[in-house]
Amino acid sequence: MVRSLRARWTGLMVAMLALIPAVVSASTAASKQQLQAWQQQYQQLPAAERQRIQAAWRQYQQLPLPQQQQLQRSFSGLDQLHRTGWRLGPRLGRHWPGLQPLFAYVDPVQREALLQLLHGLDEPSLQRLIRLAQRTAPEQRQVLRDTLLQQPAAHRAAWLRQQAGS
């Protein structure tokens, strides 16, 4: 129980560090643009995800400085793939390594619709989509994304169940 709470809290902290970068100085034009992009990503998250991150931020601010610095080092030590994934929020960030093959190279026109779709999936549907992503050849990923987007939201879970074979 304690381990699962610690893991969940750590995930929230990582997401918070990804979206509210306390260590980034906005002194250069490039870092200002990066900070603006992070703020925009944060604003696009569902309200529940933003609330979880805000709660984690409040907890983070109450930690002693050495613990804050350790969390910052841990986040900085993640590879770019994982840091990018955590910017999608705590829920999708946790699943990003499995989803990344399917959504890493998305046409910018589809990006917003796909993010909304991902945020709207329940946990079993996300797990099925991860299995599909792992089984889909790179040359077939665009077809899968297009077909997934064409599914009405009310039927998406059933479609994913059928496609994933579960």
From TrEMBL:
<dbReference type="Pfam" id="PF11304">
    <property type="entry name" value="DUF3106"/>
</dbReference>
<feature type="signal peptide">
    <location>
        <begin position="1"/>
        <end position="26"/>
    </location>
</feature>
<keyword id="KW-0732">Signal</keyword>
<dbReference type="InterPro" id="IPR021455">
    <property type="entry name" value="DUF3106"/>
</dbReference>
<protein>
    <recommendedName>
        <fullName>DUF3106 domain-containing protein</fullName>
    </recommendedName>
</protein>
